[in-house]
UniProtKB/TrEMBL annotation, chain A:
Organism: Deinococcus detaillensis
Name under which the protein is recorded: 1-acyl-sn-glycerol-3-phosphate acyltransferase
CDD domains named in the record: LPLAT_AGPAT-like (cd07989)
Pfam families reported in the protein's UniProt record: Acyltransferase (PF01553)
Any one Gene Ontology molecular-function term assigned to this protein's record: 1-acylglycerol-3-phosphate O-acyltransferase activity
Biological process per Gene Ontology, one example term: phosphatidic acid biosynthetic process
Chain ranges passing through the membrane: 12-34
SUPFAM superfamilies recorded: Glycerol-3-phosphate (1)-acyltransferase (SSF69593)
UniProtKB/TrEMBL annotation, chain B:
One Pfam family it belongs to: CTP_transf_1
Family: Belongs to the CDS family.
Catalytic activity: a 1,2-diacyl-sn-glycero-3-phosphate + CTP + H(+) = a CDP-1,2-diacyl-sn-glycerol + diphosphate
The protein's name: Phosphatidate cytidylyltransferase
Keyword annotations: Membrane, Nucleotidyltransferase, Transferase, Transmembrane, Transmembrane helix
Membrane topology value: Multi-pass membrane protein
Keyword Nucleotidyltransferase attached: yes
Catalytic activity, EC: 2.7.7.41
Gene Ontology process terms (BP): CDP-diacylglycerol biosynthetic process; peptidoglycan-based cell wall biogenesis
GO MF assignments: phosphatidate cytidylyltransferase activity
Pathway involvement of the protein, from the record: Phospholipid metabolism; CDP-diacylglycerol biosynthesis; CDP-diacylglycerol from sn-glycerol 3-phosphate: step 3/3
Amino acid sequence: MPDSDSAGPHPWLRPLFFAAVVRPALLLGFGLGVRHRERLPQTGPAIMVANHNSHLDTLLLLSLFRLGALRTVRPAAAADYFGKSGAVRWITQNLIGAILIERHAEGGRRADPLAPLSAALLRGEIVLLFPEGTRGKPEVREAFKTGLAHLSRRHPEVPVIPVALRGLGHALPKGEWIPVPLNLYAAIGEAVESDPKNKQAFTRAVEAAIDALDAELPTAVWD
Amino acid sequence: MQGILDTLRGGVGLILGLILLLLLIATFISELVPKLRGRAGSPELISRVRAWWVMAGLFVLAVLVGKRVGIAFIMFLSYLALKEYLSLIPQRSADRKVLLWAYLAIPLQYLWVFTGRYGMFIIIVPVYLFLLLPFRLMLTGITQNFLRASSTLHWGLMMTVFCLGHLAYLLVLPPLHPAGGVGLLLYVVLVTQFNDVAQYVSGKSFGKHKIVPQVSPGKTWEGFIGGLICTAVLAVVIAPVITPLSVWEALILGLLLPAVGFIGDVTMSAVKRDLGVKDASSLIPGHGGILDRVDSLMFTAPVFFHFIYYFVYGPYR
């Protein structure tokens, strides 16, 4: 599988998919409010981390990049979820350009799950991570898993850029199929200093950065 | 093509020339004057004027192509405005699905516009949806904040679907002037938006005495009256070109529409203040969101419509 990852997403179908389908749909069907767009990394290697509410989070994050820069942006996706059937796997790898990660051990021993992400960073790509590992309750951030800290420890020179996403938990929450047209928001933060010695402190720092960004976004819930 | 040429005759072409002239003057002030003086122009003003070009271009294109496209364009404006409104207001998460019903009000309302069914057009949002949506909200079984949820939802529908919908109904009124419904639509939109700009400019130049400092500190009596005078002149001058209005009717509208537009502007300011935002969104560079651009239009559209429906169309109905 490392081969299919380094081959990367489809060279022209993926930009076409984003230009013709994803961007118009996100813009007209939902609407985007982006804060600090200028902080978006133009070139890799970089790790972007965001909170996770919906499957559309990945599309939302990818649509923030210029079509030209999209080539090097690779979201991480769970192999056990997105790598099962042929069609889903093909879309995930070619249109979304995802790198499939083995989350669970197979038959007791498991290969290094972060190896494909490490390889992507070494190739100078921008890796998108959802360290919650799951979409969880709508609009509630769960504690981050340690994979991010492990990855950052291996590549301490690579900037870790936090992003807060808001809105998809209402517009298309987990388990719902009909989206409700509502604005979506993203706030991009400054890079969080890598801390190879203290994984916990680093994870907490990224969580705090995302919470601070989240506080910048409009909120309006009565319950 | 023939349809567009027919529309351009009967005064509409002349008014489009006037809009073009106004845009050129604005661009001259925002971009050329600073350049000639060897300074950088205000980026805020430049993006504002450029957005005016795009908005005016889209609007003119939509109304010129034909009645159906014109109605669809205003229907799309309603959708964007409602979406922006629903994104801003506080929500109960249980009401997620009810919002879809609120969106269904848009095609329903514009169906009556399209088929020219005035009776249904005027009653569907204020009466039937007013009764139906609280019923659907009740079915969620959650009573906490029930009144807040149903009130805010209906207020948004009245503003973005019912009030804005009046613009589209102008297009299906029987023509009493060669410019037809397109002439009426151009008239109210041009007068309202011109007044917004004229109020802003004269407020910036002479503004001193604030009208409602707690709600909208930028609004002054000097700006209001300056805008009113400029707009009244414009309203009287262009009325015979594209509308069946008499001089007196045009003069009354020239005084009424700026006042009503102002009321719409500050009312939406109060809403935004309540919600704690400066702009409704960042969709239009330099202007804010759709709601920021159509705030005055949501008030002038029904007032203009019912003025002409009663006084001008009254004898012909």
